[in-house]
Amino acid sequence: MTQATTPALAGMLSPWARFWLNNKGTIIGCGILVVLMIVFPFTASSTAMNIVVFAMIFALPAIGLNLLMGLAGQVSLGQAAFFAIGAYTHAIMLTKLHLPGPVAATIGVLAAMLVAFLVGLPIMRLRGHYLALATLGLGFIVMIGVREWDVTGRTTGIYGIARPTVLGVPIDNNGFFLWFLTPFVVIGLILALNLTRSRAGRALSAVNDSELAAESLGVNTYALRLKVFVLSAGFAGLGGVFYAYQVAIVSPATAEFHLSVSILLMVVIGGLGSVWGAVAGAFLVQFLGEGMRDAIPAIFPGATGEVQLLGYGIVLILVILLLPGGLHQAATSLWAKLPFPGRRPPADAHAQATEDDFTIPILPNVSTPVALGEPILEISGLTKRYGGVVAVNEVNLTVPAGTILGLIGPNGAGKTTCFNMISGALVPTSGTVTFLGQVISGRKPNVAASHGLTRTFQNLQVFTSTDVVGNVYMGRYRQGTAGVLRGMLGLQSAEQTAHRAAAYEILESMRLTDAADDSASDLSFGKQRMMEVCRALAAEPALLLLDEPMAGLSGAEREVMAELLRRLRSAGLTIVLVEHDVAQVMSLADHVAVLDDGVLIAHGDPESVRNDPAVVVAYLGTDLDEAEADLNELEEHV
Ligand code: ATP
């Protein structure tokens, strides 16, 4: 998914050279596929031709399902339903309404997309495996529906679908059909590959890695997943259209659960998240199916389709156990083992940051939408109840622009809950959070992000499917505008180049450029935290929420982080900091708010809060004498 061209290098190249560098994998791969498909009809037997034609047809729903499962992380068990909707609608338009082929095909694809939209509208709001269950249900509804409905020809289906004619040439044999089909598969492949590399594709992968982090950077997960679900159904519908042409009959077999399993198998065998894998998986499953059709009756005399399904099930289990990343994983690990000169050795996953390689950062741009000192964040009566537990109780706070607010309190005081309600990760039971004059409480984190509020996480939320620069690049999400369509058409290269350059600049400012192309999960813990801060800053926020940014950092790293926060504040950024390191908070913050048992017990400048007996009792000890001793000890440290 990553592009190896750095912005500096890209700037020196001609547009064609840049296009070639960014797309050479796609161009070479598609070129090979096209040549193979052109040559194949001259050399292959009729059985092999049949298998290849069906592999190319099923590559379409497999590519669609792969976008949904591999990119968006949503499992669908109903791809056959959309395949059947495409096939039946196309057949009805051709045989009953006698529409021209291209019109009938377009209506077939649109019908599949419309049904996906209507099903996805409520389902995509739910998390977990509801989509799998809903699509399973849809599969059964379509399967039973086509059997029972007169329009779909009940159990006999729809006959007499004529093969198309292209430029006066009837596509009346498998060779011609393969040539007719190949451009559509190649275009589908290119669109899908473009999507995986686009702003929307990166956002989908990010959602898959950490939905919370992606939403906190402005990604509307619901809308994006819905779009990919509809798109995935469109691919399946197009597969159905070609299937109807190829077999000339559309019967209830196109809607069977068995078919959904086999498309799922193609995606899993190919490797989740790999568009090429889906195509390879489609070929493998078709050849495997043909092999099983011969082998299974020989092993189990009299065996029928259900036994073949059993065979698919066994293959699925074996792939998941032995090769969870499918053919894609096998190919990439083989590729990595090839001894090409100039390859970088893998980063040491456990490398610890040293004082030398963790230098004080230079600042990226900071935006300040309100005058310094004016309220930027206002919290009013904020309350969160969990049954009988009041985690946060009627908290009122105002944060002036260009200041650091430290939010502290003993374990279980309600800091994280409060923080999550501000950032939109939790819906308050009552009360409001107003940011830059807009009420953002009770809305999703992407709404807060769209107004300029970003955050980091106590438990790091690294996008592990991409590299370090890819993580920071995701921070630019809200600065971009390209959606799914522009991404698929590859019409966002100028935007991509600009944001990629900005991501490199931010990494440079934090002295993380050397690690830019390393896998994010290979970074040391301290650098991952710095990377998260880079990612949040890449969004050019007006307010930065930092959840325990010092946790797990070494002494030197803490100093670097503290210096960074001071510089950010000087540049005009407003910061709210949840932190257990009280000494650091006291030395950094302009104001400190103290929570105890969900109640705001003190709020003021660090000096007054430090000397507040109620704070000392709540925070450090159980009685005042003990608290005084702790207070003296604390003062020695600060
Ligand atoms: P820590 O410093 O240990 O992270 P905290 O100050 O962030 O603690 P919270 O995590 O906000 O405290 O928890 C505040 C209170 O709310 C605790 O009593 C906690 O048990 C309770 N709480 C938090 N989340 C839930 C939940 N999902 N269901 C029930 N109770 C919860």
Model description:
There is one protein chain. The chain has 25 helices and twelve strands. By secondary structure, the chain is α/β, with parallel strands linked by helices. Among the domains are: 22-259, no CATH class; 375-452 and 541-637, 3-Layer(aba) Sandwich (Rossmann fold), CATH 3.40.50.300. The strands form three sheets. A six-stranded mixed sheet has the order 8-9-10-5-11-12, with helices on both faces. Helix 4 (79-95) crosses helix 10 and helix 17 runs parallel beside helix 20 (525-538). The longest helix has 29 residues, at 15-43. The site of adenosine-5'-triphosphate has 11 residues, from strand 4 and helix 15.
**Ends apart, CA distance between termini:** 47 Å
What ligands are attached or bound here? adenosine-5'-triphosphate
Helix content: 55-70%
Question: pLDDT below 50 for ≥5 consecutive residues: which ranges?
Answer: 345-362
How does the helix and strand content classify structurally?
Answer: alpha/beta
Please count the helical segments: 25
Strand order of the largest sheet: 8-9-10-5-11-12
Oligomer class: single chain
Please outline the major beta sheet.
Answer: 6 strands, mixed
The Cα radius of gyration reads: 29 Å
Mean pLDDT: 86
